[in-house]
Amino acid sequence: MKAQSTTADPALMRELNKSILLNLIRRQGSVSRADLAKETRLSRSTVSSIIDALLAEGLVQESGAGESKGGRRPILVNFNYRAGSVIGVDLGATHILVVVTDLGANVRAQAVREEFSISNGPEAALEEVSRLVSQALRAAGVSLDRVMGLGIGVPGPLNYSAGMVIAPPIMPGWDGIPLRARLGSQYKIPVYLDNDANLGALAEKWHGAGRGRDNLAYIKVGTGIGCGLFFDGEIYRGETGSAGEIGHIMLDEAGPPCKCGSYGCLESMAGGPAIAQRAEQAIRAGQRTALQRLARDHGLTAKDVADAAAAGDELSQQLYREAGRLIGVAIADLINLLNPGMVVIGGGVAVAGELLLGPIRQTVQSRALRASVNSTQIVQAQLGREVTAIGAATLVLQEAFRSPDLTIQMQL
Amino acid sequence: MKAQSTTADPALMRELNKSILLNLIRRQGSVSRADLAKETRLSRSTVSSIIDALLAEGLVQESGAGESKGGRRPILVNFNYRAGSVIGVDLGATHILVVVTDLGANVRAQAVREEFSISNGPEAALEEVSRLVSQALRAAGVSLDRVMGLGIGVPGPLNYSAGMVIAPPIMPGWDGIPLRARLGSQYKIPVYLDNDANLGALAEKWHGAGRGRDNLAYIKVGTGIGCGLFFDGEIYRGETGSAGEIGHIMLDEAGPPCKCGSYGCLESMAGGPAIAQRAEQAIRAGQRTALQRLARDHGLTAKDVADAAAAGDELSQQLYREAGRLIGVAIADLINLLNPGMVVIGGGVAVAGELLLGPIRQTVQSRALRASVNSTQIVQAQLGREVTAIGAATLVLQEAFRSPDLTIQMQL
């Protein structure tokens, strides 16, 4: 949210008015020139001249007649989502997923590589990304010169403006790699890098559970536990872009060591691997559970535990309740600090649904201050597996359609 | 941070330009009309006509000639801080402090009531506020019709837009009292209510340790432990205005009960009363300490412990180190979540200085993620006891001089 003090010169004002009109059209679906003039307080002739320019650029299109308000039925214009494409990349801990979307972040094609570990390092991963991008573009029938930009999400803390990850606990070998610059020079289009939780927040805010919300936190519970914060119309990234690391809230000073170097972090106690590990410990300690045979055949995953819990396995249900309780404590901390209005729970572990959300809600209710808890909804994420990639595409659109900023801030 | 989509009509543009010029003058001290025209890209004649209006209103004044850049030495204009006054009220847990400031939040007079407990309830407290406001206005030689507004800070969570505190743990009897409305109808001037930590953040940001910072967290360590968050030019208040409650971050699930109803909250383990209580426990357990005699004479306070620590008492130093370590754990959580750039430590307990800050820094260094910790300075607050009242006056000024907001936000 950069601010600059500036004032109106005619060229800037026209640019601004064009951008305002385009965003109104994007937001409202179909709208008439008269309604645009009314809403913006611009003259009819100014609106018409700008709409003509947008029609010529192909960014808006006419879409038949609207309801009459007395006279002729007005011709409506709407945003042409097909005017271009965007690439969204989800560079996950254990997979890579690429989508090609239209200008509304609607997925037109995707390409996935399963079971690819991010710890293979940047060279192998970027080669794989490159292959998947080509595959998805081919599947969508889109050539690179119709692509407005590429967004990419990674599972670690980063410096947003530098476009690189910083000391990421679960991305060995990636520290300081200039990821955004590398992809930018490869594809010659604008590239934006953000972490998966921020992109999840953006995707759920615009296309999922958070539609219409001003403030929300998106919690991604998977291999790691991350958080994206959306405040007042923007992702909140903090001073250097590494905000949102809820997975490293300390829950137990005497707790297990965490990959980050500290002890008793939420992630080390309630992330996917921690759930699986507790199940294995319980089995070794002789507890009866439907997981026993699975554990003999291969190592357990959090998904195995979730499946067993859904099928009624007592130990597995108990492990999810405990994970939910721990996540609930951290979310109570977050709600006390940030009073976010809505908390959206997503990520691989959250597909367990109410099994995880129930204990989260209970714990938050008993632990967070009434002033905030009464105004905070805790809900499950609506977007599925493509959430990070859709968020990455959304980030590109947000940056591409950003209006000239005329915020004037008080400076005492 | 409200946003509205709007565009330029001439009256609005003049209002906007006037406000931009006024804020430029406020920010820059002394400035010439030519420099204002250059910086704003407005025409010389527009600038001159607006400056004439501001001179007539008394909001700016001419201040002699600046340096020549070739021709005649230009006449400089500056903001007239004496054009009006503001009242700032600090309704503390155990005292009330009222300041009258100029339009730069510089204190012109103050009035204090010591040892007044906020648990006396709203009627007694508002009567006392009223008496102190009259006293401070008299001392400043200011009549109420020259006052732009009144700001008031309280030590509890609140609903900012409703102007009332909500279930405040240390303010029994205040829940739901329409504080802002009551003061507004009493004084017939704009009234703004916020919590003490938010106002501390605002005061330190504009007049103290945080000058020039975009993002900071102000931690107030006193009877309670609160936090004000300043992000991107504004106090972040959250969905209903109760953000910043760091004192209720859970540090130990098996910890002592907290006034909020939960257990092991930071405030219940490291606030002023907790420090004093631990000293008394240690004395009862037979530990040798310079505090022994004091404790016999009357109950101990955190200040007694700080004084003894400064004089070299081993037990007292150890208690502050432990409080600092606990506060450090919560600040590490906050830094991981918010990557704030700067953390300012203020409040009564923080006057202990490095005794508290040293262990805070050490703990943060070992607990927070490198991505955020390297970009976060932890410093002591610069403003003294008047910080909340100065923040309250600053809030009035921020709201009074807020420019028409032309932010255009992307809406997908």
Please explain how this structure is put together.
The structure is a homodimer of 412-residue chains. Chain A is an alpha/beta fold. Chain A contains 14 helices and 15 strands. Chain A has helices at 10-28, 33-40, 44-57, 122-140, 179-187, 196-207, 266-270, 272-284, 292-297, 302-310, 314-338, 354-367, 370-373, 387-400, and strands spanning 30-32, 60-65, 75-79, 85-91, 96-101, 107-113, 147-154, 158-159, 164-165, 191-195, 216-221, 225-231, 234-235, 342-346, 377-380. Chain A has a 5-stranded mixed β-sheet, sandwiched between helices. A 5-stranded mixed β-sheet of chain A has the order 13-12-11-14-15, with helices on both faces. In chain A, strand 5 and strand 6 (107-113) form a beta hairpin. In chain A, helix 2 (33-40) crosses helix 3. The longest helix of chain A is centred in the C-terminal third of the chain and has 25 residues, at 314-338. The first copy, chain A, is globular and about 80 Å long. The relative contact order of chain A is 0.12. At the A-B interface, helix 1, strand 8, strand 12, helix 11 and helix 13 of A face helix 1, strand 8, strand 12, helix 11 and helix 13 of B.
